[in-house]
Amino acid sequence: MVKQYTKGLRFEKFKEKEIPPFDKLFDIFKELLTYTSGDFDEAFTWLKQLDKEYKLTTPEYTLDDFLEDLKNKGYIREEFGDSTGNGDDPNDKKIKITSKTEQALRQNALNQIFGNLKKHGAGNHKTKKSGAGDELTGEFRDYNFGDSLDRISMTESIKNAQVNNGIGNFSLTDQDLIVQETNFKAQMSTVLMIDISHSMILYGEDRITPAKKVAMALTELIRTRYPKDTMDILVFGNDAWMISVKDLPYLKVGPYHTNTVAGLQLALDILRRKRNTNKQIFMITDGKPSCLRLSDGTYYKNSNGLDSYIVEKCYNMAAQARKLHIPITTFMIAKDPYLMQFIQHFTVANQGKAFYTGLKGLGEMIFEDYEQNRKRNIRKF
Questions:
Q1: Which of 22, 109, 214, 246 has the fewest CB atoms lying closer than 10 Å?
Q2: Residue 191 forms beta bridges with which residues?
């Protein structure tokens, strides 16, 4: 009896993948937390307003249920005021996000930005050069004196010996040995500078939130995909100071001018202490440098146009970074021709790069440039 098999296509009515109600609300809530700089109360108030307008919840799953799930899953914690004289009522209860939520915000930013990019192969940054490294390439070559024994491919070597000497009189010599090629892995040290001057929220545009998202995403990418790389984050206003990864969700703009020189000085100080060969600075800014801290501790400020004294200091810092072989990539969130001219001169002084971009696409540009810089710098080996 002959069985006859048929092949064909089966069409069914599309069924939308069911997402648990908690996950739906949590995706929205993570976005609100990013915009409110980690303020739970403000974010939850916004969520209530969105629920009223768009009916996000159902009688079976309410916002109270969502709040309870946030507590049970460890995304929020309750804190009570103390009696230390700070004006906090000890009976006052305040809800704050936990480190688990901070991690979720970074991962969310990574998915939003990096998820839109062209997929790359798994693994760390690799060179195109083969040699004594620790990443297997899948390619083979003859054994050379001095090659590490753990790089010998026994399967290929035995097969080679059988071909050369036959199975009946089997013998394995150094002429039969085959070594699997490896690639070098390199390390990159990056400093990300974020402008938190007041202009980052002027003119009806929220520029700090995209910058903050980029910082969270880039940090999460390096931690998960390139663990040998390092990234330090600093912010600059009237002064410059380092912030930790856990501080990113709470980052806000202050009533500051723009002390670009202080940011660059701190970035170079950080990178001088790194032992990696490859170093770079990413700077996200939207405004002109308008502030310097003088030797006596006072501030020299001028927001009217481009002050030549301040600008020259910036050019000097760019040239100093160039001598240290540290490229600066500037992401200018503005397209004012007057400011673009300053950035062009700054970039020439450093031999770096500059991108003039709006808020849309900022993350993709920074991620792609990070990858390109890695490849370019690795070739120096």
A1: 246
A2: 232, 281
